[in-house]
Amino acid sequence: MTEAPRIPTKWRPSMALVVYSVLLVVLGLPSGLIVLVRTLGGRGLSALETGVLVASLIVTLVIAYVLTRAVTKPIAALVGRTREISQGGRDAIRPLDAYGTAELATLSQGFLDLASRLMDRTEYMRSFAAHVSHELKSPLTAIRGSAELMRDDGAGMTGAERQRFLDHIIADADRLTRHVARLRELAQAEMPLARGETTLDAVLPDLRSHFSTLRVTASGEDVVLGLPKEALGIVLTHLAENSAEHGAKHLEIAARREEERVTLTVADDGEGISEGNRDRIFQPFFTTRRESGGTGMGLDIVRAMLEAHDAGIELVPSNKGATFRLGLPNR
């Protein structure tokens, strides 16, 4: 694990020392000048003047104390909360009891938001690692089992039996290859590509040639979309592949500019998505086609790619097939 950069160790004044010093200088400089002028003029301070100076000093110290508490207490609480979060996880992500100033409240909220996102990312990676381990373990176990059987009993096998085991090994190796390819695509999707914009016109020719069995129609082809061409191509390719694998013959894509976003609707006439699976389709490795080679990563790649470009995707109700609505930046 990479160690965090260390702040150089040297003496630095505390916040309390800075506040007290500033206020005392602000009070002491004019007061000292008054005393000096009176002394050089041969006139001392009257009892009233001395009392006023003493009272001013006391008031200054009280103000310094209040300001110091208003600033240092929330900062100390925020520092303590960072230690709690590093040791206690999500349960420690909670608001402070006091914030002192508007700037410290904004700083604290930004820190809590960052901590929450990092915790979400950590939990996602933990879950994702468990899924990857399970998905890769199954074909590896099958390959190992087939190879051991051929090693131990290969001499007594018929040609057809050996061919069957070899076919199983090749099929499981192909499954591993697909998983590795999708994992690479997912890693690339979560790393934002260069910012840019494009239109449907720029990606539709490649999409139609790649999916010759799908009749792809579109509207709003000239609407500017807040995604680079490469990202939009990846997103539509995975959605079209998902449609084709579920029996769709027609894919309709519509782009529409709204006030703050651009909406891209992708609808097909395939088998659709059952009610029980609607909440699971964006989960990594969820698929209803595992026996026929599905990896369950296509929609997760789409989601990650869009989120990397400040966009999003949702499944919306439809009378036939599946309909996805994408919200894209309006640049």
UniProtKB/TrEMBL annotation:
Coiled-coil region: none
Residue span, Histidine kinase domain: 131-331
A molecular-function term among this protein's GO annotations: ATP binding
SMART domains associated with the record: HATPase_c, HisKA
TM regions (residue ranges): 15-36, 48-67
Top EC group: transferase
PANTHER family listed in its UniProt record: SENSOR PROTEIN CREC (PTHR44936), SENSOR PROTEIN RSTB (PTHR44936:SF10)
Annotated Pfam families: HATPase_c, HisKA
CDD domains attached to this UniProt entry: HisKA
Alphabetical UniProt keywords: ATP-binding, Cell membrane, Kinase, Membrane, Nucleotide-binding, Phosphoprotein, Transferase, Transmembrane, Transmembrane helix
Location in the cell: Cell membrane
Lineage, opening ranks: Bacteria, Pseudomonadati, Pseudomonadota, Alphaproteobacteria, Hyphomicrobiales
Domain HAMP intervals: 69-123
UniProt xrefs under SUPFAM superfamilies: ATPase domain of HSP90 chaperone/DNA topoisomerase II/histidine kinase (SSF55874), Homodimeric domain of signal transducing histidine kinase (SSF47384)
GO-annotated cellular components: plasma membrane
Entry EC no(s): 2.7.13.3
The protein's name: histidine kinase
Reaction equation(s) it catalyzes: ATP + protein L-histidine = ADP + protein N-phospho-L-histidine
Topological type in the membrane: Multi-pass membrane protein
Superkingdom assignment: Bacteria
